[in-house]
Amino acid sequence: MEDCLFCKIISGDIPAEKVYEDEYVLAFKDINPSAPIHVLVVPKIHIQDVNNINEENVIYVSKIFEAIKEVAKICNIYDTGYRVISNCGKDGRQEVPHLHFHILGGKKLS
Ligand code: AMP
Ligand code: ZN
């Protein structure tokens, strides 16, 4: 996807502060954090949103949830806890149309 911001981060065309990476997944710091720890975890293929997860690409989602635990350990929030959010579509206020999971932590969230 040529015009996708997160595809450009994955390809290295746009810089990001990487937290974790493997064959399937990239995790990087949110540029506008809404908690002391705010990391985005994305699949390394373009999937638009939760509505577009299917039998063929669900392996990426499974890998994302394994990666989320790793990110939590790296960011020292594994034991204190955290929140995982994926916004979808207009009413979900999804701004970037590349599937991503927000990991929020580092304080007691409201
Ligand atoms: P959403 O509203 O769920 O689509 O969230 C998109 C998130 O991407 C927001 O929290 C933004 O702050 C974040 N974001 C936008 N551009 C960048 C960027 N270049 N690097 C890191 N995070 C970004
Ligand atoms: Zn994309």
Could you please describe the fold and organization of this structure?
The protein has 110 residues and is α+β, with helices and mostly antiparallel strands. The protein has a single domain, classed as HIT-like (HIT family, subunit A). The chain contains two helices and five strands, in the order αβββαββ. Strands 1-2-3-5-4 form a five-stranded antiparallel β-sheet, covered by helices on one side. It is globular and about 35 Å long. The relative contact order is 0.23. The mean pLDDT is 97.
Q: Rg, please? A: 13 Å
Strand content: 15-25%
Provide the structure class. alpha+beta
Helix content: 10-25%
Provide the fold topology.
Elements: H1 5-11, E1 18-21, E2 25-29, E3 37-43, H2 58-74, E4 82-85, E5 101-105
Antiparallel strand pairs: 1-2, 2-3, 3-5, 4-5
Zinc ion is lined by residues 1, 4, 6-7, 46, 98.
Short précis:
The protein is an alpha+beta fold and 110 residues long. It has helices at residues 5-11, 58-74, and strands at 18-21, 25-29, 37-43, 82-85, 101-105. It has one domain (5-105): HIT-like (HIT family, subunit A, 2-Layer Sandwich), CATH 3.30.428.
